[in-house]
């Protein structure tokens, strides 16, 4: 048997240093969240979670109910070393790995005092309190199982529960006997119902986690009764498919990868499909800062192809849904953020304080890299079949009005305004905001909007109609330089292009629209009134507003139509009464 020491930082025997380590362990558990990474599996593979009562009580096995985690990859020598060195991660050299900080495994001590690991060819049990294993832990070769049947039996039962045979299993089984009374490690007592609640919480978060985890693809959760009967609590599966996308223009200093991720499972109903973009900065200062911090300047964004999304921040795994981490963006974002010890907050130390580079790193990821990945994501999303062209646009009315998240949304809106992601009316391709003529959000009634759009399209104008929230986003990201289809702009187009191609009803709708800004003098010369089935300029001397047409025989076609809708008739009469000279309108 091999002695497992829980920390290689000390030179003494484990029992002599146990109080020191227990103090350290206790302090970490106070800061590290209960219920967070307890459900994190390592090493990479396909995890299956089960609640399994132990069927054999023996020293070191931890009789009673236990949480088991099975993973289809075998632990390496470095993995064995890693679980013995809390706070000193063997994954630190891999900046893209979950568990780089060496704290994740410690979270299991919220539930157990005797974590066990079966990973061929070894079985190991850790005992920080030295209650049953004087050395603080021990590792046995599986060939010794016949000599220790009580120790191995709960693990064999666990393998059988997940469909594995002891002779051929090529995976790792973690076994965490639930703490049934307070200990020196933690005062919290665990019971099966608490674990079931924890699993239900995990099922809610799992769809978001699987969007960004690179190796975990399937999760199944079962509850196993003492008689061996299993109850399925939930399943979830992620199926990523690489998406070949040409390198977009304007992506200098940025490496981009794309995939479509299909989620299937109980928590996602009939399933959902997500577009995931991963961008990695390839230029300074991001690369140098990431090298110093041992992190990769990389960020992933995920957006559902159908339906809405209230964006969450993740550091591989989801961060708590709080106001602090609510971005207001319709995407989930994951990056190796610098976090507080409890993984609940992004670190923002002030200049001159310890760890000030953490603030620079988080700002680089959140305020620089995220907006740069966002606009290519939008450009790819709008080209996918059936995608909502404007679902990726944030609504400033539903985002923070100040602080870092407001700065983030503002920068995202600027990037979107510069990207070709606006859908042109009646045309192909995509427009940038600076190229487009936008229909105002309050462009009269529906008939007037359609008439204005038809006129501009016929005149060759790059017109786009966007929802109100996109208008607000453009106003935030590009307060100057937008071209609107205002009444004045439409009057100029009418003078250049005319309105002969429009039906009579469309010309009257245009008349209502172009007169709506009160600049009635600008109406002179516009060919909008339908007379004798052909439009005549409003300034024509023969155009009159008069009830007594019979007084002017032979000129009936020169009068305004008698069947004008009340609103337009009232508008023209009001203009005449104010003395505006449209030919003979002044003698109304």
Automatic annotation (TrEMBL):
InterPro entries reported for this sequence: HATPase_C_sf, SACS/Nov_dom
Native source organism of the sequence: Junco hyemalis (Dark-eyed junco)
Protein name: Sacsin/Nov domain-containing protein
SUPFAM superfamilies to which the protein is assigned, alphabetical: ATPase domain of HSP90 chaperone/DNA topoisomerase II/histidine kinase
Domain of life of the organism encoding this protein: Eukaryota
Boundaries of every Sacsin/Nov domain copy: 63-226
Lineage of producing organism: Eukaryota, Metazoa, Chordata, Craniata, Vertebrata
């Amino acid at each position: 048997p091999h002695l497992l020491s829980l920390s290689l930082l000390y030179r003494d025997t484990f029992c002599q240093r146990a109080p020191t380590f227990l103090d350290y362990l206790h302090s970490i558990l106070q800061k590290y969240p209960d219920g967070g990474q307890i459900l994190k599996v390592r090493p990479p593979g396909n995890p299956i979670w089960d609640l399994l009562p132990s069927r054999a009580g023996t020293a070191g096995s931890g009789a009673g109910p236990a949480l088991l985690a099975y993973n289809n990859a075998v632990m390496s020598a470095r993995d064995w070393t890693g679980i013995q060195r809390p706070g000193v991660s063997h994954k630190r050299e891999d900046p893209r790995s979950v568990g780089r900080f060496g704290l994740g495994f410690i979270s299991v001590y919220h539930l157990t005092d005797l974590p066990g690991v079966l990973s061929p060819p070894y079985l190991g049990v850790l005992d920080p309190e030295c209650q049953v294993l004087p050395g603080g832990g021990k590792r046995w070769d599986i060939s010794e199982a016949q000599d220790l049947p009580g120790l191995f039996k709960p693990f064999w039962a666990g393998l059988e529960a997940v469909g594995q045979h002891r002779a051929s299993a090529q995976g790792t089984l973690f076994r965490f006997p639930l703490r049934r009374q307070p200990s020196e490690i933690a005062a919290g007592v665990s019971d099966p119902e608490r674990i079931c609640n924890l699993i239900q919480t995990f099922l809610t978060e799992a769809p978001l986690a699987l969007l960004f985890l690179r190796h975990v693809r399937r999760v199944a959760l079962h509850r196993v009764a003492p008689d061996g009967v299993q109850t399925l609590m939930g399943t979830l599966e992620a199926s990523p498919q690489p998406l070949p996308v040409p390198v977009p223009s304007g992506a200098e200093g940025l490496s981009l990868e794309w995939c479509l991720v299909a989620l299937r499972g109980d928590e996602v109903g009939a399933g959902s499909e997500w577009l995931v973009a991963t961008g990695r900065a390839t230029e300074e200062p991001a690369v140098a800062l990431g090298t110093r911090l041992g992190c990769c300047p990389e960020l992933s964004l995920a957006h559902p192809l159908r339906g809405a999304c209230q964006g969450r921040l993740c550091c591989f795994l989801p961060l708590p849904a709080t106001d602090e981490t609510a971005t207001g963006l319709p995407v989930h974002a994951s990056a190796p953020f610098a976090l507080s010890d409890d993984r609940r907050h992004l670190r923002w130390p002030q200049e001159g304080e310890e760890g000030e580079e953490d603030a620079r790193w988080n700002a680089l990821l959140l305020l620089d890299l995220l907006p740069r990945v966002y606009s290519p994501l939008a450009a790819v999303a709008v080209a996918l079949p059936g995608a909502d062209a404007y679902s990726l646009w944030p609504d400033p009315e539903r985002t923070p009005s100040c602080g870092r998240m407001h700065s983030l949304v503002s920068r995202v809106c600027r990037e979107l305004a510069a990207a070709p992601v606006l859908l042109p009316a009646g045309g192909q391709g995509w427009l940038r905001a600076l190229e487009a003529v936008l229909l105002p959000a309050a462009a009269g009634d529906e008939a007037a909007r359609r008439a204005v759009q038809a006129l501009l399209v016929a005149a060759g104008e790059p017109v786009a109609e966007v929802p109100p929230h996109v208008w607000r986003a453009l106003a935030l990201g590009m307060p100057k330089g937008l071209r609107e289809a205002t009444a004045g702009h439409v009057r100029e187009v009418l003078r250049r292009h005319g309105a002969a191609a429009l039906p009579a009803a469309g010309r009257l709708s245009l008349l209502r629209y172009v007169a709506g800004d009160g600049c009635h003098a600008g109406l002179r010369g516009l060919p909008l009134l339908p007379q004798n089935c052909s439009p005549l300029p409003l300034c024509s001397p023969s155009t009159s507003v008069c009830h007594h047409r019979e007084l002017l025989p032979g000129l009936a076609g020169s009068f305004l139509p008698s069947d004008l809708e009340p609103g337009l008739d009232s508008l023209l009469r009001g203009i005449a009464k104010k003395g505006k000279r449209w030919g003979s309108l002044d003698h109304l």
